[in-house]
Specification:
Elements lengths: L1 E10 L4 E2 L16 E9 L5 E9 L4 H12 L6 E3 L2 E3 L1 E13 H14 L2 H4 L3 E12 L2 E13 L3 E8 L1 E8 L2 E6 L4 E4 L2 H12 L2 H5 L8 E11 L2 E9 L5 E6 L5 E9 L5 E14 L2 E11 L2 E13 L24
Antiparallel strand pairs: 1-2, 1-7, 3-4, 3-7, 5-6, 8-9, 8-20, 9-10, 10-11, 11-12, 12-13, 14-15, 15-16, 16-17, 17-18, 18-19, 19-20
Length: 333
């Protein structure tokens, strides 16, 4: 059984109103997120006037009728013009989100396995360790790193393997410092997209619900893990078509995340992260090893030596320095 959550947003901003309703959905067209846009007349009397369908991606008359019924119950303050209440027409969008109960249960089990409420209340993370590059199962290079995250979308990573290299992201912006070349510059579009893709594909984003009201969650089924063992698989699909699958063992321990992307040569690339060596840190079970595979061949390993949660972190460390000289000093946390 699946649950439908109904949301409404007024545009341009007059107010924001959120409705929620729960029901069983059996129609094929309700198996994914969709939206209904209405033209709604907001009368100067404070009541709702005429309502008409503007557009719909649901292909479901029942959902469209539900949107209309919800619009009739909009509560609002009339817009004031020339010191008088005015009748206006607004475009109102209702978004329907489907929840897969089996997938939700798997997420809940994983959260409890990793620490429950302590895991959910993590606001920041500082990790230190070693990043290794592999080829043909052999380490060909490695760097030490310090990785600072303020959830949901701030991250600064410093690598040392000779010269210092720094990559910093804040939402849809970021900067990088190439220590070998001594160059400090803004990140390009591809680097920003890579960071956003990394967030959408991250285990923390799944388990802490950063995808909600955006992506579609579904249960895929069981997948062979090892001899005699099968993992549960859940899947997130974002509006742009990006999809990521997550595997969990029977006891709820995260095992893998898998997604596909297209490279600069328009080739499809499969990327997979495998989680191992879970260690209790401040009551939170943390994977101290993350192995990255590209097209089924291991390309890198993150090996944490220490992890610290919920330390106060200044926003200043994410700001782009005025010059490369400021990056010669070690990061102070």
């Amino acid at each position: 059984m699946k649950k439908i959550l109904l949301s409404i947003f007024l545009s341009p901003l007059l107010s924001i109103i959120v409705f929620s309703q729960e029901q069983v959905s059996t129609t094929e067209n309700s198996s994914k997120n969709c939206a209904v846009q209405l033209k709604v007349e907001l009368l100067n009397s404070g009541k709702v006037g005429n309502i008409s369908l503007f557009s719909s991606s649901c292909n479901d008359k029942k959902l469209e009728r539900e949107a209309v019924e919800a619009a009739k119950n909009i509560k609002f303050e009339p817009e004031i013009k020339d010191n008088k209440p005015t009748t206006i027409t607004k475009t109102v969008e209702y978004k329907f989100f489907i929840q897969d109960e089996k997938a939700e249960a798997i997420i809940k089990k994983a959260v409890e396995k990793l620490g429950g409420e302590k895991y959910l209340q993590v606001k920041s993370q500082i990790g230190r360790g070693r990043f290794s590059v592999l080829r043909d199962n052999v380490i060909i290079s490695f760097q030490t790193f310090v990785d600072v995250i303020v959830f949901p979308d701030k991250e600064r990573t410093e690598f040392k393997g000779g010269a210092r290299n720094v990559q910093t992201n804040v939402g849809k912006s970021g900067w990088v410092f190439d220590g070998d070349a001594g160059v400090l510059k803004e990140q390009d579009k591809a680097q920003i997209e890579s960071f956003e893709r990394g967030i959408n594909a991250s285990l923390d984003n799944l388990l802490r619900g950063g995808w909600r009201n955006e992506a579609v969650l579904s249960y895929v089924g069981k997948r062979q893990a090892s001899l005699g063992k099968r993992n549960d698989v859940v899947k997130l699909v974002y509006p742009n078509g990006f999809a990521v699958e997550f595997e969990f063992s029977d006891d709820g321990t995260p095992a893998k995340s898998i997604f596909k992307r297209t490279n600069a040569d328009n080739e499809e690339i499969k990327e997979e992260d495998r989680y191992a060596q879970f260690i209790d840190v401040q009551g939170i079970k943390t994977p101290f090893i993350i192995d990255r595979f590209i097209n089924n061949a291991q390309s890198s390993r993150i090996n944490y030596e220490s992890v610290e949660y919920n330390k106060s972190i200044s926003d200043s460390i994410f700001a782009k320095p005025k010059s490369a000289k400021e990056l010669k000093k070690d990061l102070k946390l």
